[in-house]
Amino acid sequence: MRKFWVASGIGIGVCLTFVALLVVGTYSAAAGIAGGARQGAVGLVKGAVPAVYQPLVERWGNLCPALNPALLAAQLYTESNWKPDALSHADARGIAQFIPETWATYGVDGDGDGDRDIWDPKDAIPSAATYDCQLAKDVAQVPGDRSDNMLAAYNAGPYRVIKAGGVPPISETQGYVKAIRSLEKSFARPVGRVAPAQQAAGAVYFAQKQLGTPYLWGGDGTAADNGRFDCSGLTKAAYESVGIELPRVANDQYNAGSHPSRGELLPGDLVFFSDDLTNSRAIRHVGLYVGGGYMINAPFTGAVIRFDKIDTPDYFGATRVTKDGAEALPERSASTSKP
């Protein structure tokens, strides 16, 4: 939900001309970005990892060449959503979701307090990195990408990776490797510019057609909702209209792609807002950037879907949505409060 300090929306009557000028102008200015975009990252993007865990992820994510902080972050996010008390039906425990048998072998005393505690992130995060790097060592002689092989060993076991001579032809394992490598981009601080999203214009067009629609908390735009949306319901529907399935909740939508800087925003980027600028899990509002410093958003009860400026004190950051990024996100049950 949008904070009340945001200025009132721009008049709906000029929306078609306004959006057209912003989108065309911004994409024209970005004509050289796609060709200049390049892969690679150094460190973690701001706020993607909760601040309390970031030093651990940055330190232990560099434990071996097959691992990096963004890759370790992607695994931890997938395993537990950063919840140190997570417990699965299979008795996988803590932020890194170790089962006790594996912990007995690979658990380490990361904080040097004389205790290996499966529930303590200061032990569990170092242990996750240690386990990854042992797997990387086990499959070090296998040809192919060493990080892919490490992740495949994590999912299917080193023997299957060695036997296959790389990522084995197991759909679950191939899907796991693809998902973690895609999520890695969401946690990594980009080097250079982020490539434009191909489906962004269609998402903006969908959101544009909803201008003037009353806000509804929890609204998904269905007939039962009388076509009304809340903030993340609107962005989810906008990208669903172009074939990309986003999570329902704003703070999970943040991980659906890489994160362009404020100066590199393009129409269709998701823009996020939070009271805690160090933790993406605290995000409480999302809108769809249209250019010129404006977004289309469903702000709060009593308002309508409208244009608002994004440059406010609670601006958190942006995500350039990709189909691979969205498909990599772990399935989670939607929160009863849907920001």
**What would the principal axes of the Cα set say about the shape?**
elongated
Number of helices: 13
Radius of gyration: 21 Å
Strands of the biggest beta sheet: in what spatial order? 3-8-4-5-6-7
Looking at this structure, what is the CATH superfamily of the largest domain? Answer: endopeptidase domain like (from Nostoc punctiforme)
Strand content is 5-15%
Distance between the termini: 6 Å
Main sheet? Answer: 6 strands, antiparallel
Q: Helical residue percent?
A: 25-40%
The tally of beta strands, per DSSP, is 8
At CATH level 3, the topology of the largest domain is endopeptidase fold (from Nostoc punctiforme)
Please, could you describe this protein's structure?
It is a single chain. The protein has 339 residues and is of the alpha+beta class. It folds into 2 domains: 12-31 and 195-328, endopeptidase fold (from Nostoc punctiforme); 43-188, Lysozyme (Orthogonal Bundle), CATH 1.10.530. Helix content is 38%, strand content 11%. A hairpin with an 8-residue loop joins strand 4 and strand 5. Helix 6 (121-138) packs across helix 7, helix 7 packs across helix 9 (171-187) and helix 10 (200-209) crosses helix 11. The longest helix is centred in the middle third of the chain and has 18 residues, at 121-138. It is elongated and about 60 Å long. Residues 3-42 and 333-338 have low confidence and may be disordered.
